[in-house]
Amino acid sequence: MGPSPHTPGPAGAPQEPCGILATQAEPAAPGVASLHEGGAALVGAGEAPAGTLVCPEPEQRPDLWPWSARRREDGVLEIAGVSLTAVALDFATPAYVLDRADLRGRARVWSDAMAEEFWDGYGMAGGDAFYAAKALLCADVVDVVTQEGMGIDTASLGELLLTLRAGADPSRVGLHGNNKLDLEIETALLAGQGQGIERIFIDSLHEVAQVERIAASLDTTARVMVRLKTGIHAGGNEYIATSHEDQKFGVSVADGGAMEVVSAILASPHLQLLGFHNHIGSQIEGTEAFVAAVGVVMDFRARVQRELGVRTQEVDLGGGVGIAYTGADPVPTSAAEVARELAAAVRAAAERTDTDVPHVSVEPGRCVVGPTTVTLYRVGAVKDVTLEGGALRRYVSVDGGMSDNIRPALYGAAYTATLANRAPTGPWQRCRVVGKHCESGDVVVHDVDLPEDVRAGDLLAVPATGAYGWSMASNYNMMTKPGVLAVEQGEARWIVRPQTLEDLMGLDPGLDVGLDAGLDAGLDVETGRGDGLGTAGGQAAGREAPGGAGPAH
């Protein structure tokens, strides 16, 4: 058996600074390309000099990484006492590696921040946080966040069923969606032995009649909130800004649609209006947009009370608090700051409108789970491409890609990456980390500086992938989805098992007779391992996945 590709760098190897401003030499002047000693351009004219796009180390930007992440003296990255080389050797690559204690802590921080800032002792009416299930959902995540005081907001039948089956209290569950199925609504109303979930968010006039019809047929009452369009445009990308007028979610305050929906709810005998919801977008920096939305929602609430004589008890201000993905991103706004600013804005709006203070909830998802997780890849082919002007771009291919993180292709989202199996030291080379899909847009990290000697067999860690990595993963090119590996106190276990090739082939009824055909080619369709493939076998070997806990290394 040959040497393992997981061998870390030498113990005590010198480590160069890896912050966003770390460089190996004086920065090139504007418009001048950085050069190799031999004269080849590292980067094109006008681009940031080589060495300025290095992934920050955990101690430099802890907000990018799980709280327990650290670089050991031998250069290996570890999380919760589990080395990422051990993850690759004993489990799989690609893999989402989640710090379970970090997730628990972030959920508790949000629960505590809302409870404190909206405490009735401060003249408020209570506040809490609901975890946005779309970010990452599995039974273990439900267990962790609900134990720490969060409710769960869902947006499909699958999310709702998993949440309920995982043991979440139905009285702490919500259901979103702009086109809810009858079965989704029925499931929501029948949960908890017929008590129903806490809230269904009404997204259109059509849904008022739909929910009323189903609630009447079940002889029950549906507790509903109205999702409002406030006209506040916020978020990192047009596709994730969700409260401006020209998009599919909610009913407009400005054009009278929201008041029409409220009137229809009040006329429906099987609907109970709890209050109003607004979600302005995702990946939002600061609190200014949230405060502006508070004013619109509270003004509408006061108008309903004044014109229709109905006093509502609840306001949900959605989620969308951003996180850092690269060293160029600002340190994110804290839960405490968001809760404090929201409380101040709600209190001021209640005084201005001469109304009482409502109970307030929020729906963070990305900021709860995003930084808890890194995606671990193994490097395969490394290829230099000569650009116009003579600069080089190094393409570093990994054993995953857009099927395990679609956000760079879908949103142009920026990530960073670093070596996980050895200390990253210069000289630096401008690189593009790409996947193995049949798409030129299959990019994991658009631009990052990696050591010039990055090579096949190295491990790369991409931080801040807990939100929307696994939940948006696909089987494009018949790639199998990576698993989610929870690490805690030196132990690791799958909380979502990796898919196998047999999982995929089993969906195709035309293959029922021939599931063993892969064996003729030396491929085990259960594990995905082929003859002669070692642990560096990429997609195939990387999907071999023991189901139990793995050893700590």
Task: Note down, in words, how this protein is organized.
The chain has 553 residues and is of the alpha/beta class. Helix content is 25%, strand content 20%. Strands 4, 14, 15, 16, 17, 18, 19, 20 and 21 form a nine-stranded mixed sheet that branches. Helix 2 (100-117) crosses helix 3, helix 2 (100-117) packs parallel to helix 9 and helix 8 runs parallel beside helix 9. The longest helix is centred in the middle third of the chain and has 21 residues, at 288-308. It starts with 69 loop residues before the first strand and ends in an 11-residue tail after the last helix.
What attributes does this structure have?
disordered N terminus; 21 strands; nine-stranded mixed sheet; alpha/beta; 553 residues; single chain; eight-stranded parallel barrel; globular
Topology:
Layout: E1 70-71, E2 77-79, E3 82-83, H1 84-90, E4 95-99, H2 100-117, E5 127-132, H3 139-147, E6 151-154, H4 157-165, E7 173-175, H5 182-190, E8 199-202, H6 205-217, E9 222-229, E10 251-252, H7 257-266, E11 271-277, H8 288-308, E12 314-316, H9 335-353, E13 359-362, H10 366-369, E14 373-386, E15 392-398, H11 407-411, E16 418-419, E17 428-434, E18 443-451, E19 459-463, E20 484-488, E21 491-496, H12 501-505, H13 517-520, H14 538-542
Parallel strand pairs: 4-20, 5-6, 5-13, 6-7, 7-8, 8-9, 9-10, 9-11, 11-12, 12-13, 15-17
Antiparallel strand pairs: 1-2, 2-3, 4-14, 14-15, 14-19, 16-19, 17-18, 20-21
